Amino acid sequence: MIKLIGIEKVYDSPSGKVHALKGIDLEIARGEIYGIIGLSGAGKSTLVRCINMLERPTAGTVIVDGQDMTKLTESELRQARKSIGMIFQHFNLLSSATVYDNIAFPLKLSGMNDTDIKKKVTPLLELTGLTDKAKQYPAQLSGGQKQRVGIARALANKPKILLCDEATSALDPQTTKSILDLIHTINETLSLTVVVITHEMQVIKDLCDKVAVISDGVIAERGSVLDVFTNPQHPITKEFISVLLSNDLPVAFRGNEISQDRTPDSLLLLRLTFLGETADYPVLAQMIRSCSGIECTMLFGNLDEIHGVPFGRFIIGLSGSDEAIRAAQDFLNGQDVKVEVIGYVRRNFAAVD
Amino acid sequence: MSEEILPLLTKALGETVYMVIVSMVIASIIGIPLGVLLRITAKGQILENVILNQTVGSVVNALRSIPFIILMVAIIPLTRLIVGSAIGTTAAIVPLVIASIPFIGRQVETSLKEVPAGLIEAAQAMGATPFQIISKVLLPEAMPGIVSQLTTVIIALVGESAMAGAIGGGGLGDLAIRYGYQRFRPEVMLATVVVLIVLVQLVQFVGNTIAKRLDKR
Questions:
Q1: Which residues of chain A are within 8 Å of residue B143 when distances are taken between CB atoms?
Q2: Interface contacts (A, B; CB < 8 Å)
């Protein structure tokens, strides 16, 4: 649906040339929700604006729905933009127009008559739950309601693509969730291709099928959200994920020396990651049963879901005889569980009390 | 205050209102598009054209730096060409218009600058033409500001029109000078000033009311 080939963008700034995008290749399939995450200044907003040519790339090709956007004339481009809806962080609604008129705006631009406009706007008001707000002005609405107007307006021309530029960054977590749910619903009901720009991993996790991590003008990592979450490669990705999934040790062990060799009176800490079916399979119970003499302490546990796939992370502490520990490790390695050895660590009893 | 002042005042008020309204209408017809031009051709705007922007900007600045009384005398030949006479109330409208056009242009430009860039970007993303962006985004969004600014221009015109007496334009200012000052009739002077104050208050009140009703922010 969207194909970016070798996209580069160079800005002239007072302090010299700024290379915002350094050769980006990206392919987004029809009906997909594709997340692009990056820190501010990483180039993600520039990238999404290259899709509808609000920013003209310095080099590279943008193909949307089989059309090379970089080769269109001004009027062809205006026509092409009508099938690409866009929503913004600061909503960008007309303050002088009512909710109804804001949603009708793109239709008025196309010269549609009032009767047809009404036929299109009414269902959009219903879809976004704004029917009773139709006559109000944006200043009378909450942030979440404003973004709903933004979404309704973006959908008015029945686009094939929806670009979301930090659409939830100005909203509180609860409102964010309701907006993400709405985007998810329209993705499914209208089979819309959605491109999501964000700096919040939570948005990627809750909404997207695929993700590209952009850093310093290049794509550092990409893949399905599940793969990237469970097996991040690039340091920047790990950092984004760590906001949601802490890699810190439990308080009781923090500040203690971790050694790879066994010391007396210590626990072997293991980080276990369960994915999918195994998340609700009694792996630990079986381990205890099959390895006699093993003591297992549950130190941290978290069960989450990414796209309906259960995803569990645990830290356990093992103690017992050398053989028992080895047997337990062998057992776990034989299961469908990702096992990371953290090391042997003494319990910090002071911190617990 | 004697009875005879009243018809004098009414006539002078009529002349002032006539000069201000006609000048304002003509100057707005030219000045508002000028303000739009100054805005949209600025760097980074929808029809960026820096050379045109700077040229028009310099002309506007030059016109605005000429004191009205000098402008009025300096353009007498032009006035005669347009109106057929260099003196009289209608003749005074020509310099009033010329002085107001650049003023309105700058005021409108300032109001248009207040429209957030994101709104223009959103309209572009929806496939709006530059003309649609001007007529459906820039002007409606800036309208409360434009009304406030135009109110200021009208009040400035009331003041400038008082100088029109110098070329036989009549009006309240002329009445105050000729009767109040030159004929030592302080009560005429006072009455004129009171009428001017009421007029300006009224203009400001109407302007504020309209601007407030338009402002949905």
A1: 96
A2: 65
Judge: B118–A90 Cβ closer than 8 Å, yes or no: yes
Contact: A94, B143; criterion CB under 8 Å = no
Instruction: For A295-339, write each residue's pLDDT tens digit.
Output: 888 888 888 888 778 888 888 888 888 888 888 888 888 888 888
Mutual orientation of helices B76-83 and B89-113 as an angle, nearest 10°? 110
Phi, psi of A266 (to 5 degrees): -130, 165
pTM above 0.90, yes or no: no
Q: DSSP states of A49-69 as a string?
A: HHHTTSS--SEEEEEETTEEG
Distance, CA of A283 to CA of A316 (rounded, Å): 12
Domains of chain B: 5-214 (1.10.3720.10)
| Structure tokens given for A134 | 């139709």
Of residues A352 and A20, which shows the higher confidence score? A20
Domains present along chain A, CATH in parentheses: 2-244 (3.40.50.300), 251-352 (3.30.70.260)
Q: So what's the pLDDT on residue A348?
A: 59
Number of H helices, E strands in chain B: 10, 0
Tell me the per-residue pLDDT of B126-140, one tens digit each, with 9 for 90 and over: 999 999 999 999 999
Q: Cα(A223)–Cα(A216) distance, rounded to whole angstroms?
A: 18
- A247 CB contacts (<8 Å, ≥6 apart)? A238
Find out whether B28 and B104 touch, Cβ atoms under 8 Å.
Answer: yes
